[in-house]
Design goal:
Blueprint lengths: L4 H27 L2 H27 L19
């Protein structure tokens, strides 16, 4: 079963929100400056959504590590 494009985009956004919160906290702990933390996490939020989406679509087109599902019109006797 293949993912649709909107599924990949939603996965990218939800993952980046999680990652950006992490970046925000780490940046604040390192710099002690909330403005820098929001700036850095805000920029990387958008760049990494795009990168993740492209990465996800490339992997969607690769057959590496996938097993073909049997056709549904033929009964499978595997246990």
């Amino acid at each position: 079963m293949a993912d649709q494009h909107h599924r990949s985009l939603i996965k990218a956004v939800s993952w980046r929100i999680t990652g950006s919160i992490d970046t925000l906290i780490i940046t604040f702990l390192i710099t002690g400056k909330l403005k820098w933390a929001f700036t850095i996490s805000g920029v990387e939020l958008f760049t990494k959504i795009g990168l993740y989406y492209v990465h996800e679509r490339i992997w969607e087109n690769l057959s590496f590590g996938r097993v073909k599902e049997p056709k549904k019109d033929k009964p499978s006797f595997e246990i």
